[in-house]
Amino acid sequence: MRHGKKVNHLSRQTGHRKSMLANMACSLIEHKRIITTVAKAKALKQFVEPLVTKSKEDTTHNRRIVFAYIRNKYAVTELFREVAAKVGDRPGGYTRIIKLGNRLGDNADMCMIELVDFNELYNGGKKEEKKGRTRRAKKSTTSAPVAAAPKAEAPAPVVEDAVEETPVAEVVETPVVEETPVAEAPAEEAPEAPATDEESKEEQA
Description:
By secondary structure, the chain is mainly alpha-helical. The chain is built from 7 helices and 3 strands. It folds into 2 domains: 14-122, CATH 3.90.1030.10; 168-204.
């Protein structure tokens, strides 16, 4: 029975367990995901998430509190610089546990624990949906397409006017083609006129 057993001791003494969780937290902060057993991952989740919450406010006091737990100045620096910048707007739930099946040797239940904000595959469009779940955001999104629709209709008449102008240019070109044969006809009549004048002079002579 597990009466009153709130903490999983992980078959280790207190000092060994704290050192193990500190090392696992440093590896998680450095590599953003690690593979371990489900029992250790659940214990690590409870250990590391309060530290990530502390890193949101970058003060000397918070850095000293985090350093007292993980005892690695490089991990503390990366936590307060890179990780805190990603999780700044997330109100908790910084890690995710994904089960991978059982280990071959001892059949232990294995899993992968990772920092949620560093997985681009799962977080492609989910972050934007969470921001737009409020009622005010829905009203703004519905009004935006309505405003965009009249703008799309406005350029349509301009295209029609451009199409109407093209036939007018074609009509102007057709009379120019018709004037050319008219200019050739008087040129043919001009040589005939002097011929008639010479005939009239011969008749008079």
